[in-house]
Amino acid sequence: MQSFPFMGELNRLHKELGLQMVAVNLDEETQEAEVFLAKARPEFTVAADPQRQCAKDFAVEAMPSSNLIDRKGRLRHIHKGFRPSEVEELRSVLKQLLDEPAS
């Protein structure tokens, strides 16, 4: 819940530079997901993955986890959990990736 406002801010500030923010909800019960999303009110895409295949594919070890994928589709950074003290590190890594050329 704490990460959603920060992720929404990043999405607003950087989507015109090519940022595509996608959260993956792993709740098996859709009602639980709906209650959470009604409270969190995300400003970015939230995909449902009740079979948790995405978490398996990315070997997710902590929730939330952020996987930063560059413009070429390569996984470049994994951040486990969310702590306000690490926000600037995430901003820095994201800026570095967004500053890279598209081709």
From TrEMBL:
Superkingdom per UniProt: Bacteria
Database matches in Pfam families: Redoxin (PF08534)
InterPro entries listed in its UniProt record: Redoxin, Thioredoxin-like_sf, Thioredoxin_ResA/DsbE_sf
Domain Redoxin: 2-94
UniProt protein name: TlpA family protein disulfide reductase
Organism taxonomic ancestry: Bacteria, Pseudomonadati, Pseudomonadota, Gammaproteobacteria, Methylococcales
